[in-house]
């Protein structure tokens, strides 16, 4: 179907009359003439003139526009051929949503090796809070998501990594001597943790509710550094994970220690909508991420 106004113009230029040109579209002669008049108004120049004997002729403006339109058509055809070549080569663009903190755990440039092995793949990856990560995947805005592990009815998820949850406790706090912290222990202190948009917060509240424990005062911080500082200042205890607590920036002081929390885990996996059928490259990526996460599981 011809839709481009310059295609109409080229037909008019090559045809003996607007009626003949309109018949090739097809459309009414009146509609075709209107399309040409609209183009003339847009360009601000007359493209066709009528001689005294009623003969329609192209103006010099039309001659110049015709050469331009031919070049544009050739470029458009080349572009269409390029698109077809890319499509037939199996080029794949993957959109991946990712919960905050997961790329840091997998390592800087964790996708580089996969992209080197699969030059036909392009990946767009965006980090966001846990709740948003699930929301954009559910809305079909992303193909896959690296989500914090927790059952979601409309997702298929493949767990890549799981870790116990711990809490930072000041060394002079009696809780620091405990082997593990029970929900009742957590409820005795002000508690700093990532907030509403993070699954660790929602899982904690759900655990308190299941066990009939009244939750303590909870201070919500989005940055793990602020949680550590909260504990260091003696304001309470704070959520952490073993791989975070072992970072050099947090291990330079004896004033804060790490105590595991009984029955709490944190992990992540690759998720996709149940209605989404995985393509070959998506399956390749999941297998690659599983191999990379296996290095974390061995630590």
TrEMBL record:
The keyword DNA-binding applies. Residues 1-59 form the HTH lysR-type domain. Belongs to the LysR transcriptional regulatory family. SUPFAM superfamilies: Periplasmic binding protein-like II, Winged helix' DNA-binding domain. It comes from Eggerthella lenta (Eubacterium lentum). Keywords: DNA-binding, Transcription, Transcription regulation. PANTHER family: HCA OPERON TRANSCRIPTIONAL ACTIVATOR HCAR, TRANSCRIPTIONAL DUAL REGULATOR HCAR-RELATED. The keyword DNA-binding applies. GO terms for molecular function: DNA binding; DNA-binding transcription factor activity. Signal peptide: none annotated. One of its GO terms (cellular component) is protein-DNA complex. This is LysR family transcriptional regulator.
